[in-house]
Amino acid sequence: MRQWRWIVAGAVLALLALVLGVRLLVVDRLWPETRGQTLLDQAALALAEGRLDAEDGSGARQLYEAAAALDPDDVRPRAGLSRVSEAALQQARAALEAHRFDAAHRALQLARDLAAPRDAVDAVADALRAREAEDAGLDGLLAQAQAAQADGALDGTASSALPLYRRILTLDPTNPEALRGRDETLAAVLGQARAALRTGDLRGAGDLIAAARAYDPGHVDLPDTDARLTEELDALRRRAAGSLAAGRLERGVAEWRMLLAFDADDPTAQRGLADAAVAYAQRAERHARDFNFADADAQLREARLLAPDSDAVRTAADNVERSRLRHAQLAPQLAPAERRRRVATLLQDAAAAEARGDLLSPPGDSAYDRIRAARRLAPDDPEVAKASSRLLPAARQCFDGGLRANNLARARNCFDARVALGDDAGTLRDARRRLAQRWLAIGDERLGAGNLAGADAALALAREIDPAVPGHAEFARRLRTASLSGN
Which helix (H) or strand (E) holds 250? Predict the structure, then answer.
């Protein structure tokens, strides 16, 4: 029995080796030829049934191309593709006769793709264009286009002048009235672009110029209008750089952002905003050296909005924090008499600043800064409390003015002043909500412009000011969706 087991096992192994040998030596050699023939048979059937092209791979074109890829030396797939191109021309002619113009265009494109004879393709294309023009009623289309042009409906909808003229010229490329009407309409569009440039609407002018170029890149008015746009962009860059150099950071940032609204990839504008962030960071460090931490923090917030990953901004934040710690260490060391003397001096300086009208600015020398310094030294002093109450109305007006001017950094400074001056908790709660909502609106604008980092920074500021601001969760979801789609 043991011998029979060995005999059976040997027979099984021999059978497996035979099967494997047949598989390797026979089937693998015959498989490409077998698979290629199957594809050719399927392609011939698809051609006979008129299934010339199909996205799912079942069309005659796709099947012949698959057979050619399997065996590039086989001439049969190439011959098959030639027959497909002939059949495509026949289908185009039949669709043309049946007034099925979309099908005719598709079949004609297939014939072009498969290198059908150029003369035959052009003949069908000419006949198709003429038949479409006849069916479309070019006279009626021309009348519609001219009426839209007269009404000032130049572009934007299918019934506007330019799309109608384009449709006519697609069917009849030499139609003189359509050519003249298109040129006149494009001249009007480019006139609108030049008017937009005069008002500073660079984005609007750019959109109009791009639309005109899409209809006729060779229009006679395009070069001059393009040159004017370039001049305006260059002038805006010079103004933005000048504002930054002169220390007018808010104006410079606004001008750089106008450039980015026109071209989000403008490298000069991107560098300009980065330079503005450094300037804000330097301001923050100067305020911190004078122990003016509210203004230092406000300048840091602006810097982070512009360049959240800047090394200069991070360094400035570290320096501000060191100044804060140094101030905390110095304050308790003052003797009571010295503290009283310093408080009195600060209150005298605050009164002098009030007399000059310097209630909340300039930073470091305003009445508010002097009173705030006095509060840090003697928070319970009745004279300090009395001086604080005198400044509250000015701080409230400053806050409202900052919101009206959309200067949120100033509004935040004034809000912090109201907090430091002991404003009513209820009015502070309302002001906090208004300021946070304004930051959310800024974030929405930045998200719409594709500035995801700026939108995220604005959301963070809104939540920092008022964690319960309405709409912050929904905006955060939109921001996450935009970030994921961007990745």
Answer: helix 249-262
